[in-house]
Specification:
By secondary structure, the protein is α+β, with helices and mostly antiparallel strands. The protein has 6 helices and 8 strands; from the N terminus they run E-E-E-E-H-E-H-E-H-E-H-H-E-H. The protein starts with 6 loop residues before the first strand and ends in a 12-residue tail after the last helix.
Length: 263
Protein backbone atom coordinates (compact mmCIF):
# COMPACT_ATOMS: atom_id res chain seq x y z
CA UNK A 1 0.00 0.00 0.00
CA UNK A 2 1.56 3.31 -1.11
CA UNK A 3 0.75 6.76 0.32
CA UNK A 4 -2.08 5.18 2.31
CA UNK A 5 -3.83 4.12 -0.90
CA UNK A 6 -4.76 0.58 -1.83
CA UNK A 7 -4.35 0.66 -5.62
CA UNK A 8 -3.66 -2.55 -7.53
CA UNK A 9 -2.92 -3.25 -11.17
CA UNK A 10 -4.73 -6.28 -12.61
CA UNK A 11 -3.42 -7.93 -15.76
CA UNK A 12 -5.23 -10.33 -18.10
CA UNK A 13 -3.15 -11.59 -21.04
CA UNK A 14 -3.79 -13.47 -24.26
CA UNK A 15 -1.69 -13.77 -27.40
CA UNK A 16 -0.84 -10.26 -28.66
CA UNK A 17 -3.22 -8.58 -26.18
CA UNK A 18 -3.43 -7.28 -22.62
CA UNK A 19 -6.26 -5.93 -20.50
CA UNK A 20 -4.91 -3.78 -17.66
CA UNK A 21 -7.33 -2.75 -14.91
CA UNK A 22 -6.85 -0.60 -11.82
CA UNK A 23 -8.60 -1.81 -8.66
CA UNK A 24 -9.14 0.49 -5.68
CA UNK A 25 -9.52 -0.80 -2.11
CA UNK A 26 -9.94 -4.37 -3.40
CA UNK A 27 -13.55 -3.60 -4.28
CA UNK A 28 -14.03 -1.32 -7.29
CA UNK A 29 -12.46 -0.89 -10.74
CA UNK A 30 -11.59 2.74 -11.44
CA UNK A 31 -9.84 2.67 -14.82
CA UNK A 32 -8.39 0.34 -17.42
CA UNK A 33 -6.91 -0.02 -20.87
CA UNK A 34 -6.64 -2.50 -23.72
CA UNK A 35 -3.23 -3.08 -25.32
CA UNK A 36 -2.51 -4.78 -28.63
CA UNK A 37 1.06 -5.93 -29.23
CA UNK A 38 2.64 -6.44 -32.65
CA UNK A 39 6.32 -7.43 -32.39
CA UNK A 40 8.02 -4.34 -30.91
CA UNK A 41 5.08 -1.90 -31.00
CA UNK A 42 2.22 -1.51 -28.52
CA UNK A 43 -1.08 0.03 -29.60
CA UNK A 44 -3.29 1.43 -26.84
CA UNK A 45 -6.67 0.43 -28.24
CA UNK A 46 -8.60 2.13 -25.46
CA UNK A 47 -8.25 3.82 -22.10
CA UNK A 48 -11.35 4.37 -19.98
CA UNK A 49 -12.40 5.28 -16.45
CA UNK A 50 -15.47 4.47 -14.40
CA UNK A 51 -15.53 7.91 -12.75
CA UNK A 52 -15.87 6.08 -9.41
CA UNK A 53 -12.44 6.79 -7.93
CA UNK A 54 -12.48 8.24 -4.39
CA UNK A 55 -11.33 10.75 -3.45
CA UNK A 56 -11.77 12.33 -6.86
CA UNK A 57 -8.50 14.27 -6.66
CA UNK A 58 -6.41 11.10 -7.03
CA UNK A 59 -7.95 10.01 -10.34
CA UNK A 60 -5.46 11.96 -12.47
CA UNK A 61 -2.58 10.46 -10.52
CA UNK A 62 -3.91 6.94 -11.10
CA UNK A 63 -4.41 7.52 -14.84
CA UNK A 64 -0.95 9.06 -15.18
CA UNK A 65 0.54 6.12 -13.29
CA UNK A 66 -1.15 3.60 -15.58
CA UNK A 67 0.12 5.39 -18.69
CA UNK A 68 3.61 5.65 -17.17
CA UNK A 69 3.55 1.88 -16.57
CA UNK A 70 2.60 1.23 -20.22
CA UNK A 71 5.26 3.58 -21.57
CA UNK A 72 7.94 1.77 -19.56
CA UNK A 73 7.15 -1.61 -21.11
CA UNK A 74 10.09 -3.23 -22.91
CA UNK A 75 8.94 -2.07 -26.34
CA UNK A 76 10.17 0.27 -29.12
CA UNK A 77 7.05 2.34 -29.87
CA UNK A 78 3.88 3.10 -27.91
CA UNK A 79 1.01 4.29 -30.11
CA UNK A 80 -2.56 5.44 -29.58
CA UNK A 81 -5.40 6.59 -31.83
CA UNK A 82 -6.93 9.40 -29.82
CA UNK A 83 -10.68 9.76 -30.43
CA UNK A 84 -13.13 10.75 -27.64
CA UNK A 85 -15.79 8.21 -26.74
CA UNK A 86 -17.98 8.33 -23.66
CA UNK A 87 -17.81 4.65 -22.87
CA UNK A 88 -15.24 2.15 -24.16
CA UNK A 89 -14.57 -0.44 -21.47
CA UNK A 90 -16.90 0.06 -18.52
CA UNK A 91 -20.59 -0.43 -19.28
CA UNK A 92 -22.97 2.20 -17.90
CA UNK A 93 -20.14 4.57 -16.94
CA UNK A 94 -21.33 7.24 -19.39
CA UNK A 95 -24.34 7.72 -17.09
CA UNK A 96 -22.07 8.59 -14.16
CA UNK A 97 -22.26 12.37 -13.78
CA UNK A 98 -18.79 12.42 -12.19
CA UNK A 99 -17.12 11.02 -15.28
CA UNK A 100 -15.51 13.69 -17.45
CA UNK A 101 -14.95 13.77 -21.21
CA UNK A 102 -12.41 15.52 -23.45
CA UNK A 103 -12.90 17.23 -26.80
CA UNK A 104 -10.84 15.75 -29.70
CA UNK A 105 -8.20 18.49 -29.48
CA UNK A 106 -8.04 18.33 -25.69
CA UNK A 107 -7.63 14.55 -25.78
CA UNK A 108 -4.78 14.89 -28.28
CA UNK A 109 -3.05 17.35 -25.95
CA UNK A 110 -3.59 14.97 -23.03
CA UNK A 111 -1.83 12.06 -24.77
CA UNK A 112 0.94 14.27 -26.12
CA UNK A 113 1.62 15.65 -22.63
CA UNK A 114 1.54 12.22 -21.01
CA UNK A 115 3.97 10.72 -23.53
CA UNK A 116 6.27 13.75 -23.31
CA UNK A 117 6.35 13.64 -19.52
CA UNK A 118 7.93 10.17 -19.55
CA UNK A 119 11.10 11.56 -21.18
CA UNK A 120 11.62 8.15 -22.78
CA UNK A 121 11.82 9.22 -26.42
CA UNK A 122 10.45 11.36 -29.22
CA UNK A 123 6.72 12.11 -29.41
CA UNK A 124 5.05 12.20 -32.83
CA UNK A 125 1.56 13.57 -33.52
CA UNK A 126 -0.31 13.16 -36.79
CA UNK A 127 -3.76 14.74 -37.02
CA UNK A 128 -5.86 17.48 -38.57
CA UNK A 129 -5.35 19.54 -35.40
CA UNK A 130 -1.55 19.64 -35.54
CA UNK A 131 0.55 21.85 -37.78
CA UNK A 132 3.88 20.08 -37.21
CA UNK A 133 2.87 16.54 -38.11
CA UNK A 134 5.27 13.61 -37.87
CA UNK A 135 5.34 9.82 -37.63
CA UNK A 136 8.05 7.38 -36.50
CA UNK A 137 8.25 5.10 -39.54
CA UNK A 138 10.62 5.49 -42.49
CA UNK A 139 9.00 2.92 -44.79
CA UNK A 140 5.44 1.74 -45.33
CA UNK A 141 6.38 -1.90 -44.74
CA UNK A 142 7.64 -1.04 -41.24
CA UNK A 143 4.18 0.05 -40.06
CA UNK A 144 2.56 -2.31 -37.56
CA UNK A 145 -1.16 -2.88 -38.10
CA UNK A 146 -3.68 -3.68 -35.39
CA UNK A 147 -7.27 -4.75 -35.04
CA UNK A 148 -9.75 -1.82 -35.20
CA UNK A 149 -6.90 0.37 -36.50
CA UNK A 150 -7.73 3.18 -39.00
CA UNK A 151 -4.40 2.58 -40.75
CA UNK A 152 -5.42 -0.95 -41.73
CA UNK A 153 -8.22 0.29 -44.03
CA UNK A 154 -5.88 2.68 -45.86
CA UNK A 155 -2.85 0.43 -46.36
CA UNK A 156 -1.92 -0.11 -50.01
CA UNK A 157 1.26 -1.13 -51.81
CA UNK A 158 0.62 1.67 -54.30
CA UNK A 159 1.20 4.40 -51.71
CA UNK A 160 4.45 5.80 -50.38
CA UNK A 161 4.54 6.44 -46.65
CA UNK A 162 3.91 10.21 -46.85
CA UNK A 163 0.91 9.77 -49.14
CA UNK A 164 -0.39 7.02 -46.89
CA UNK A 165 -0.45 9.25 -43.82
CA UNK A 166 -1.89 12.18 -45.79
CA UNK A 167 -4.70 9.92 -46.98
CA UNK A 168 -5.57 9.10 -43.38
CA UNK A 169 -6.40 12.75 -42.69
CA UNK A 170 -9.40 12.58 -45.05
CA UNK A 171 -10.94 9.38 -43.75
CA UNK A 172 -14.29 9.83 -42.01
CA UNK A 173 -13.11 7.72 -39.05
CA UNK A 174 -9.92 9.79 -38.71
CA UNK A 175 -11.00 13.42 -39.22
CA UNK A 176 -11.51 14.06 -35.50
CA UNK A 177 -8.89 11.59 -34.33
CA UNK A 178 -5.16 11.80 -33.71
CA UNK A 179 -2.33 9.29 -34.06
CA UNK A 180 0.18 9.84 -31.27
CA UNK A 181 3.42 7.90 -30.89
CA UNK A 182 6.11 7.63 -28.25
CA UNK A 183 9.18 6.47 -30.19
CA UNK A 184 11.67 4.97 -27.76
CA UNK A 185 13.65 3.24 -30.50
CA UNK A 186 13.62 3.32 -34.29
CA UNK A 187 11.76 0.46 -35.96
CA UNK A 188 13.53 -0.82 -39.09
CA UNK A 189 12.08 -4.30 -39.55
CA UNK A 190 9.07 -5.70 -41.39
CA UNK A 191 6.64 -7.33 -38.93
CA UNK A 192 5.10 -10.74 -39.28
CA UNK A 193 1.34 -11.01 -39.70
CA UNK A 194 -0.31 -10.48 -36.33
CA UNK A 195 -3.63 -12.20 -35.60
CA UNK A 196 -6.08 -11.01 -32.95
CA UNK A 197 -8.56 -13.58 -31.65
CA UNK A 198 -12.06 -12.24 -30.91
CA UNK A 199 -12.69 -15.23 -28.63
CA UNK A 200 -9.57 -14.66 -26.50
CA UNK A 201 -9.77 -14.33 -22.72
CA UNK A 202 -9.06 -10.60 -23.08
CA UNK A 203 -12.05 -10.15 -25.40
CA UNK A 204 -14.30 -12.26 -23.17
CA UNK A 205 -13.28 -10.21 -20.14
CA UNK A 206 -13.86 -7.00 -22.07
CA UNK A 207 -17.32 -8.14 -23.16
CA UNK A 208 -18.32 -8.77 -19.54
CA UNK A 209 -17.11 -5.31 -18.49
CA UNK A 210 -19.07 -3.69 -21.31
CA UNK A 211 -22.21 -5.54 -20.24
CA UNK A 212 -21.76 -4.50 -16.60
CA UNK A 213 -23.14 -1.45 -14.77
CA UNK A 214 -20.66 1.16 -13.57
CA UNK A 215 -23.19 4.01 -13.47
CA UNK A 216 -22.74 4.55 -9.71
CA UNK A 217 -20.66 3.34 -6.76
CA UNK A 218 -23.02 0.61 -5.56
CA UNK A 219 -23.48 -0.93 -9.01
CA UNK A 220 -19.76 -0.51 -9.70
CA UNK A 221 -18.80 -2.51 -6.61
CA UNK A 222 -21.23 -5.27 -7.52
CA UNK A 223 -20.02 -5.35 -11.15
CA UNK A 224 -16.40 -5.50 -9.99
CA UNK A 225 -17.18 -8.40 -7.67
CA UNK A 226 -18.89 -10.30 -10.48
CA UNK A 227 -15.96 -9.66 -12.81
CA UNK A 228 -13.31 -10.79 -10.29
CA UNK A 229 -15.29 -13.96 -9.64
CA UNK A 230 -15.39 -14.67 -13.39
CA UNK A 231 -11.77 -14.04 -14.43
CA UNK A 232 -8.35 -14.72 -12.95
CA UNK A 233 -6.08 -11.66 -12.97
CA UNK A 234 -2.40 -11.27 -12.19
CA UNK A 235 -2.21 -8.60 -9.48
CA UNK A 236 0.45 -6.23 -8.18
CA UNK A 237 0.66 -2.81 -6.58
CA UNK A 238 0.57 0.06 -9.06
CA UNK A 239 3.48 2.44 -8.59
CA UNK A 240 1.86 5.85 -8.22
CA UNK A 241 3.32 8.87 -10.02
CA UNK A 242 2.48 12.13 -8.29
CA UNK A 243 1.04 14.99 -10.34
CA UNK A 244 3.89 17.34 -9.35
CA UNK A 245 6.40 14.78 -10.68
CA UNK A 246 4.60 14.77 -14.03
CA UNK A 247 4.52 18.57 -14.18
CA UNK A 248 8.23 18.75 -13.37
CA UNK A 249 8.98 16.32 -16.19
CA UNK A 250 6.88 18.34 -18.63
CA UNK A 251 8.98 21.45 -17.87
CA UNK A 252 12.22 19.69 -18.82
CA UNK A 253 13.39 19.45 -22.42
CA UNK A 254 15.77 16.50 -22.17
CA UNK A 255 14.61 13.19 -23.68
CA UNK A 256 16.28 9.94 -22.68
CA UNK A 257 16.54 7.87 -25.86
CA UNK A 258 17.72 4.27 -25.39
CA UNK A 259 20.55 3.34 -27.79
CA UNK A 260 20.28 -0.43 -27.45
CA UNK A 261 17.26 -2.39 -28.53
CA UNK A 262 15.18 -3.41 -25.53
CA UNK A 263 13.74 -6.65 -26.89
Amino acid sequence: MENGLNIKLLDICSENEKLLLVLQDDQILVCGCILQINSDVVYIEALDTTGLCTPRNIQKMIINSLIHYICNLDIAIISVFSLPRKEIIFGGSEHNSLKGFYTPKKLEEFWKDRFSSTRLGKVHVYSNFTKNKSFPYKKLEHIRLFDDDPKRKTMSDDLDISTFFQTLLHRADFIKGSLIYLEKQEVTTTPEECVFDESSVVRRALNLLRQSDFSDKQNGIESTKQFLNSFYCESKELELIKIDEVKKAEEEILFLVPKNKLI
